[in-house]
Amino acid sequence: MSTGFDADVIVIGSGAVGSNAAYELAKQGKSVILLEAGERMPRWKLIQNFHNTSRRKDNIAPFPNKPWAPTSAYDGYIVNTGNQVMTPGQLKLVGGTTWHWGGAAWRLIPSDFKLKSLYGVGRDWPIDYDDLERYYARAEAEIGVAGDNSEDQAGNMGRAWPPRSTPYPLPREVDTYYAQRIAKRIEPHGYRVITEPSTRASAGYRGRPACVGNNNCLPVCPIGANYSGFIHAELAEQAGARLLTDATAFKLEKGPNGKIAAVHYRNSKGENTRLTARTFVVAAHAYESAKLLLMSDVGNSSDQVGRNLMPHLALILRFLADEPLWPGRGPIQGNAIMNLRDGDFRRHQASNKYQLSMPVANEFITTRLLQQGVLGSELDHRIRHDSARFVEMFGFWETLPQASNRVTLGQGRTAIGLPTMSVHYDLDDYSRNTASVVRQDFEQFIKAMGGTDVMARGEEIVAVDHIMGTVIMGDDPKTSVVDKDCRSWDHENLFVVGTGNIPACSAVNPTLTGIALAIRAADRIATEV
Predict the structure, then answer these.
(1) Among 189, 346, 495, 504, which is least packed by CB within 10 angstroms?
(2) Tell me, what's the pLDDT at 2?
(3) How many CB atoms lie within 10 A of CB 220?
(4) How far is it, in rounded angstroms, from Cα 390 to Cα 455?
(5) Any idea which residues carry the catalytic annotation?
(6) Is the dihedral of CA 209, 515, 513, 307 positive or negative?
(7) What's the chain's average pLDDT?
């Protein structure tokens, strides 16, 4: 341990981002403390919670939601003030929110890093794809991504894209019958269905079993085939890191020369502890990282902390196809349509993707039929018939950073006296333009599949659990929170890492990018402590 300090590095947040950063530093011989506001929960207990809850479609229900460590589902913890509700499925426990996710592990493509330069909207990254590529490769190896090395993930390059220095560590998953039939019928209309890179192990990987298609990635994989950040929290411990639970960081203490001197955390009993380190890494959820900086009044000389909030916005399509497709047999998601991921159209509408969702539809269908008054033997017949033909797709798209879309400290208090959060998000014309295009494509999908009994065709825009921009990265300390290395412009020994760094969010899930940024930042930190 560093003389005079409690650790070389203190990492705040034990999710996929923070735990990967902690592991990289610990295995290089640095003394590391990893702080987690929540508790440690074994998989068997989470599965038991799922079995016992009556809220089977609530992906947060199996997880701890304590007054002293509230999730986004805790009443009053997040207050929305804009015209779009922004309450993502954030968790607080060792491993973080990747306990309940579909496992999508996309890379951004080169043009995503130059959105402003190429298309005149949004922001450019201060780094380019080549700067991050080898860290993408390392992140994929760490979390075990299965994918297809030959596919064009940009949708219009005509060759494998984006460029890769290494193949995926695991082979692609086999397409389900559901995905095969949808592809067969919509591809003649100009849509290309591709494989979604996934952290569901397609073969045994580093102690994880291969996915067997339980269709329970959300809320929790029952066998541990899908990656969760708790894996790297435990690896960090094995490498020598010290993991502290029930430890809500609430203050970063300023020291001399603009450095951070200590972090203060509070436990569920209201007791405070002060820890010192050479370097501090804030790696909480994109909301929580911004909240901690705001509570501490640090890292915000630009007045950009909490601003530039970018979610992915989505429309939902549900209907019955004219043939049995048997959704629910296999993982909850695994394929996507990327025709509109990149192109000059991004000057006036967003990059978007269509995700083929494949849930077990029986409960949804049954509830709907009962509401329609269908009973008896007809109910049994219709449940079988409709559930086999159920199609669900999400069309979701990138958003642009706007200073007015932001996270601020709320007026309420948690059980241990810390502020709640207020979130303001308003839709802009860029998103509305994209929604119109998505709805047009939905009509084509319905037609191609002989769709009937349409239950949703994109009437309501919803926010997806992908939060970016709140601690935005840039090349100008006046307009960003951190630099290209995720270092605070204001405090030399403070790094803020995660999806909140992302300045241009593309249309794909951001988790892999957040992990790659964390590994890159850890390499930089390791040279300095």
Answers:
(1) 189
(2) 55
(3) 22
(4) 10
(5) 466
(6) positive
(7) 96
Give residues with Cβ within 8 angstroms of 450, minimum separation 6: 321, 322, 323
Q: Alpha-carbon distance 489 to 269, whole Å?
A: 35
User: What is the value of pTM for the model shown?
Assistant: 0.97
Confidence of residue 137 (pLDDT cuts 50, 70, 90): very high
* Residue 144 one-letter amino acid: G
pLDDT above 90 as % of the chain? 94
- Residue 75 reports pLDDT greater than 60: yes
Domains for the chain: give ranges and CATH numbers: 7-526 (3.50.50.60)
What count of Cα atoms within 13 Å lies in the side-chain half-sphere of residue 370? 6
| 338-to-277, 311, 342 alpha-carbon distances in Å | 45, 18, 9
- Within 10 angstroms of residue 215's Cβ, the number of other Cβ atoms is 18
Q: Can you tell me the distance from the alpha carbon of 93 to that of 219, in angstroms, rounded to the nearest whole number? A: 14
Query: Residue 268: which residues within 8 A CB-CB, separation 6 or more?
Result: 66, 68, 69, 246, 415, 416
Query: Which residues on neighbouring strands pair with residue 273, listed in sequence order?
Result: 265
How far apart CA 208 and CA 103 sit, in angstroms, is 14
SS3 129: helix
Predicted confidence band at 1 (pLDDT cuts at 50, 70, 90)? very low
Beta strands 7-12 and 272-282 are parallel
User: What count of residues does the chain have?
Assistant: 529
Contacts of 207 (CB under 8 A, 6+ apart): none
At residue 183, what are phi and psi to the nearest 5 degrees?
-60, -45
Angle at 492 between CA 486 and CA 493, to 5 degrees: 80
